[in-house]
Design brief:
The complex is a heterodimer of chains A (311) and B (263).
Chain A (H helix, E strand, L loop, with lengths): L46 E2 L7 H28 L3 H10 L1 H34 L5 H7 L2 H4 L2 H12 L13 H26 L2 H9 L4 H30 L2 H7 L9 H10 L3 H32 L1
Helix pairs in contact in A: 1-12, 2-12, 3-7, 3-9, 6-7, 6-10, 7-9, 7-10, 8-9, 9-12, 11-12
Chain B lengths: L1 H29 L3 H8 L2 H34 E2 L3 H9 L6 H12 L4 H8 L8 H27 L2 H8 L4 H30 L2 H7 L9 H10 L3 H25 L2 H4 L1
Helix pairs in contact in B: 1-12, 2-12, 3-7, 3-9, 5-7, 5-10, 7-9, 7-10, 8-9, 9-12, 11-12
The chains are: A mainly alpha (311), B mainly alpha (263).
Chain lengths: 311, 263
């Protein structure tokens, strides 16, 4: 396997920050392009797994595969298996129940909206952190990671306290779709910021200066020079935020009030179906979410490869 | 003009979404002084929840630390068929909803399944007890240690390890004397990330624990249960503990973050 193909990181740039949830992988199988490159392209990386008298690496691989299978792969396969337990018809029937299809529509719609807001606000925050000499930037930079570190149930509690029935700011979003969107915005805040920020940092200012000296206006410079450079990172961060919003549970539990057809997002729906012993229904909606996540992950991988090829 | 309006919009957004909500949790917890907070945190139920969280976190982080180092070594130092698939699988748990993690484990290890019954017959209960909660926590934290350690392993190269081997050091000796000291910082960073994530896990734990009050209730489940039972004092007090823990974890991880990631 060629060295440059050996990894499937989500993004070219590692985020400069600790993140406790979804984070673009730092690809272990690939060196940064500008880094030390001791191996030629196409030469297999690493030692062979077994060498005479040393079985430890092979044993280690066996252990790792067993661990992943028992904890991740077999259980996830069981979800897909269970959802089609009564044939594909059973699966269609389960996800076409009014309650299931409305929860899926709500989740996808809310996640798209949240991804869009993140695209704009995340880029704006990254811009502020990199290009604006605002006092207290270091503190803001740290705050951005808080949603990754904070338990989701605490996030939900915090938002319900401010935007709930006894709202001190007079804004009651409890048990509304707007409340769900706010909760999703909270947990997805860091993604676009942390993918765009490093690219913006590395961006060569000379191009912008050249354009400015030729008479381009700031808006033109942004659209023609900066935007094309940060667009792949913006897209990647937005996709990550979308995936996270689709699967979010803890932060929406309290604020959504769990009203079917109104505020019940997919994860909460799955939880309820499981509590009321409709395991097949829970598995069917889960399978749809898993498929959507898989598409996002594959899309991100393709995006990364495309961006890397483009240079 | 543009600059100032950008500042106003961004700062207002962050204040409304992050700063005000998190501050108000702290305010709510302490608005009657520190005494009631301490009382609420030292009830038997609260102490038990903290204990369960500590136990689950300890085993989950321990398992993922060993797994993370071994996996990072395999991915960086060796070549084998299926390496790219393994690398992609490591990130899979990040894209799975915590509730689906719980459901998946119930479907395999629950008492209504063959595996679950067979394990129960030999006295091992996974679902609705601590082992299941550990497995669920392990699931959601799988990538953290691997992704913290792997880039540093890549960066340090294997010249020193090969030199040690040439001088007659065994595999374990090389690892303990050469590799481990070199990745110490990155490993600690990964462990802190895994710790914070484990302490805060809610969805997967909510499903596999069965939310048995006084038996399998972790701190995050305690926050939710107390809030919905109108015991706001206890809910906010334990939420503040989690907020403080998260901020401490954030500060430690910033200090430990491997330098080449900072750039």
């Amino acid at each position: 396997m060629p060295e440059t193909e050996s990894g499937a990181g989500l993004l070219e740039q590692a985020p400069p920050a600790p993140d406790l949830a979804l984070r673009p992988a730092i690809d272990p199988g690939r060196k940064p392009r500008r880094g030390r490159s001791r191996r030629r392209r196409g030469v297999p990386s690493g030692r062979p797994l077994t060498s005479p008298g040393n079985f430890a690496p092979a044993l280690g691989l066996g252990m790792v595969v067993l661990y992943l299978s028992v904890i991740v792969l077999i259980p996830l396969a069981a979800v897909a298996w269970r959802s089609t337990g009564q044939g594909l018809d059973g699966f269609w029937h389960a996800i076409n129940r009014p309650e299931a299809s409305s929860t899926l529509k709500l989740t996808i719609g809310a996640s798209l909206l949240v991804a869009l807001v993140n695209l704009v606000m995340g880029t704006a925050i990254a811009w502020l952190l990199v290009r604006d000499r605002l006092p207290g930037r270091a503190l803001i930079d740290m705050l951005i990671d808080l949603p990754f570190a904070l338990p989701t149930i605490v996030a939900g509690l915090a938002l319900l306290t401010v935007y709930g029935t006894n709202s001190p700011v007079g804004l009651n979003l409890a048990y509304t779709r707007a409340g769900v969107v706010v909760a999703l915005l909270f947990v997805t805040l860091p993604f676009v910021v942390r993918t765009v920020q490093p690219v913006l940092l590395e961006l060569d200012r000379e191009m912008e200066e050249a354009a400015a000296s030729l008479g381009a206006r700031p808006a033109t410079i942004f659209v023609r020079i900066i935007l094309p450079n940060i667009a792949p990172a913006m897209a990647a961060g937005t996709a990550l935020a979308f995936a996270r919003a689709m699967s979010e549970f803890g932060s929406t539990v309290l604020i959504s009030g769990n009203l079917p057809f109104k505020t019940q997002v997919a994860s909460v729906h799955i939880f309820n179906q499981l509590e009321s012993d409709n395991v097949t229904g829970a598995a069917a909606v889960s399978t749809v979410l898993l498929i959507v996540s898989l598409f996002v992950l594959v899309g991100l991988d393709l995006l990364q490869r495309w961006a890397a090829r483009r240079g | 003009m543009v600059k100032n309006s950008l500042r106003v919009v961004v700062l207002a957004y962050l204040a409304m979404l992050l700063v005000i909500p998190v501050s108000i949790v702290v305010y709510h917890a302490f608005n009657a002084g520190i005494g009631p907070v301490i009382d609420a945190l030292t009830t038997p139920a609260a102490l038990h929840a903290f204990q369960i969280t500590a136990v689950v976190t300890f085993y989950a982080v321990l398992a993922n630390t060993v797994f993370g180092v071994v996996t990072a070594l395999l991915l960086v130092r060796y070549r084998f068929p299926g390496k790219r698939i393994l690398n992609a699988l490591i990130d899979l748990p990040l894209a799975v909803s915590p509730v689906i993690v719980g459901l998946a484990l119930v479907l395999v290890y629950g008492r209504t399944t063959g595996t679950g019954r067979a394990l129960a017959d030999v006295g091992i209960n996974i679902i609705f007890s601590i082992p299941g909660m550990v497995i669920a926590t392990v699931f959601v934290c799988i990538p953290l240690v691997v992704r913290a350690v792997a880039p540093v392993l890549e960066e340090i190269g294997d010249e020193q390890e090969q030199a040690a081997a040439t001088l007659g050091a065994g595999g374990w000796q090389t690892f303990r004397r050469i590799t481990l000291p070199a990745i110490r910082g990155a490993l600690a960073y990964g462990v802190v990330l895994a710790l914070a994530r484990s302490l805060g896990e809610y969805g997967a734990i909510a499903v596999v624990s069965g939310r048995l009050v006084g038996r399998t209730q972790t701190v995050t489940l305690f926050v939710q249960e107390r809030y919905q039972n109108f015991d706001q004092r206890a809910a906010y007090a334990s939420a503040v503990v989690l907020v403080v823990t998260a901020i401490v974890a954030l500060l430690i991880s910033r200090a430990l973050r491997p330098k080449e990631l900072v750039r």
